[in-house]
Amino acid sequence: MLLPDSCFIDSNIFLDAATERTTKKIHSFLEKVKFGEIKGYINPIVVSEVFHKLAITEIIRTMKISYSEAIALTKEEPEIIKKLKTFKAINEIISYQGIEILEINKETVIDAIKISKEKGLLFQDALIASTCKQNRIEDILTNDKDFERADFLNVIKIN
C-alpha cells in the first residue's frame, strides 16, 4: 500500500501506536510524520479523544479499577489528572514536525451536523470529516470503517 504525502490522521492511529495493537506500518508511518517526511493533519477532536482514552487507560492500569470507577475518580480527585503521564504523550504528538492542528469553527460545526445526519456518522467523526472537507483534505488514515460513508474522503487503512 502506497501512503500519501499528506493526510488527516484519525485518533485510532495514535491510540493503536500507544498500545499493543500497534504494527510496524503504523510505527513507521508516525516516524515519518514525526520527522516531517509526511504531513499529518489533526484537529482538537483527535487531541481530545487521544488524551481522554490514554488518560483513562492510565488510571485504570495504575489504580487497577474499572472504567466507570476511573471516570468517577477524575471527578472526585482532580489532582490525579495533574500526575498523568498522558500529558507527555500528547505533547510529543503535537510537537511532531509534520503535524498541523486544524481549527474547528462555526462553519465546521454546521457542516458536521449536516454530515452526521446525511452520512450517519457519530458527531465526533462528522467533525473530523467536516474538518477534512473544509481544508480540502481527501485522504484520512484510520482504522474506522465508518468514514467510508463520507464519500468525499479516501479512507486509507494501515494495520
Observed structural traits:
159 residues; Rossmann fold; five-stranded parallel beta sheet
Secondary-structure blueprint:
Layout: E1 6-9, H1 11-17, H2 24-34, E2 39-42, H3 44-63, H4 67-76, H5 79-82, H6 86-94, E3 99-101, H7 106-119, H8 123-134, E4 139-141, E5 154-156
Parallel strand pairs: 1-2, 1-4, 2-3, 4-5
Written account of the structure:
- With 159 residues, the chain is of the alpha/beta class.
- It has helices spanning 11-17, 24-34, 44-63, 67-76, 79-82, 86-94, 106-119, 123-134; strands at 6-9, 39-42, 99-101, 139-141, 154-156.
- It has a five-stranded parallel sheet.
- Helix 1 runs parallel beside helix 3, helix 3 packs across helix 4 and helix 3 packs antiparallel against helix 6 (86-94).
- The chain starts with 5 loop residues before the first strand and ends with a strand.
**What string, H for helix and E for strand, traces the elements in order?**
EHHEHHHHEHHEE
CATH class: Alpha Beta
Distance between the termini: 11 Å
Low confidence ranges: none
**Number of E-state strands:** 5
How many domains in all? 1
What's the arrangement of strands in the largest beta sheet? 3-2-1-4-5
Rg is: 16 Å
- Annotation field: number of helices: 8
Tell me the CATH superfamily: 5'-nuclease
Content-based structural category: alpha/beta
Fraction of residues in β-strands: 5-15%
Please give the share of residues in helix: 40-55%
CATH architecture grouping:
3-Layer(aba) Sandwich
Taking the sheet with the most strands, its summary is:
5 strands, parallel
CATH fold-level name: Rossmann fold
The residue-averaged pLDDT reads 95
